Amino acid sequence: MPHRTAARTAKLASLPLGIAGRAVSGWGRRLTGQSAEQVNATLSAKAAEQLFEVLGTLKGGAMKFGQALSVFEAAVPDEFAGPYREALTKLQSAAPPMPTRQTHRVLAEQLGRSWKDRFAEFSDEPAAAASIGQVHHAVWHDGREVAVKVQYPGADQALRSDLRQLQRFSRLLQALAPGTEIKPLLAELSDRMNEELDYRTEAENQRQFAKAFAGDQQVLVPRVVASAPKVVVTEWVTGTPLAKIISDGTVGQRNEAGRLLAEFHYSSPARANLLHSDPHPGNFMLLEDGRLCVIDFGAVARLPHGAPSALGVIMRLALEGRSDELLDVLKREGFVRPGTTVDAEDIQAYLAPFTVPLTRERFHFTRRWAQKQALRLGDTRGQDFRTARSLNLPPQWLMIHRVTAGAVGILCQLDAELELRSIVQQWQPGFAA
């Protein structure tokens, strides 16, 4: 894994340079008689291939960025999204593996030289890959099937290098979102991502979730078997990945997966005082018994008092059209910076489309709906774009926002229809008057 700043920056820079180079060659092929459709299809496929290769090889924060993108591809128009959808989906659970010798070295360092004695069987071929580690299928010494997540050597340096790059780009990011205070957000993001480097923290998070959902009829959280700073061993679970259901699941599977996902996210703060904060399809599976299996607890928001009631109040006021009260709450929570002038009616108009799923008994989340919201917010000539530039995302709301946006992205990928309002009414404090 390249972890020096110069090497990683060069790799990331190769993405726009490669795309530019292919554009030039594509222009040449147009001159030789190839159609625009043929050229664009070829360029998109090659750009997507490079995207997977670069982000997958870099892993760390760069791959995390790619995994985050994979959730929001539902908002990309279909005529452009095809090749990227496939490449980004691959990043959810697959990346170039590290050599077996390196894997064994990390296991020996973390579990001791006699680490093999702790397993009855151990597969050297990775079963899956994540942003900072890869997963192996094994059998524990007592006969239990287990998943062994091993952190990539150099993952810590690579992740911190990516975070430093983000800090360097803070001025650019500030220009793109002038209303948002970028530096506190980056500091919060850095703290949360640094926590993911110690698998002991992830193991403790998973233990807390597993205890909260023990015996649950809808959600399964695998139990932790053993943990170390760079290795975590958990129970092995076999199921249908959400990515598979997104690609070719039945209507019933899509709707049920969406319902279970929404139930899990909205109930977790009340049941576990935690919020699973890495919402991409690679972290969820549908089991044969109908339960949703949830994995990867490295990114977690700690909510000792449950979900903030202000979120429910904001939802309710936006639904009821009480724009002046809504603006007051947003100011109090830090969503509007002091001294910023913003019209209450503009805020209401900006948020209203997001509350549509809560206005109906059942709502159908579709790619078309996601694309419509993306076009609305991206229209530089529209009022909603100007309103967005007046808003701020407080650091304490970063992970909640990430989960809410990411979960909606997955629901749109699933094309799921569900009774979201009843779930919110049951679990979200402040929503019921």
Automatic annotation (TrEMBL):
What keywords would UniProt list here?
A: ATP-binding, Kinase, Nucleotide-binding, Transferase
Tell me the domain of life: Bacteria
Name assigned to this protein: AarF/ABC1/UbiB kinase family protein
Where the record annotates domain ABC1 atypical kinase-like, the positions are 90-307
Report the GO molecular function annotations. Answer: ATP binding; kinase activity
Question: Keyword Ion transport, does the record have it?
Answer: no
Matching InterPro entries, A to Z?
Answer: ABC1_dom, ADCK3_dom, Atypical_kinase_ADCK, Kinase-like_dom_sf
Keyword check for Glycoprotein, yes or no: no
- One matching Pfam family is ABC1
Per the UniProt entry, the signal peptide is none
Question: What is stated as this protein's family in its record?
Answer: Belongs to the protein kinase superfamily. ADCK protein kinase family.
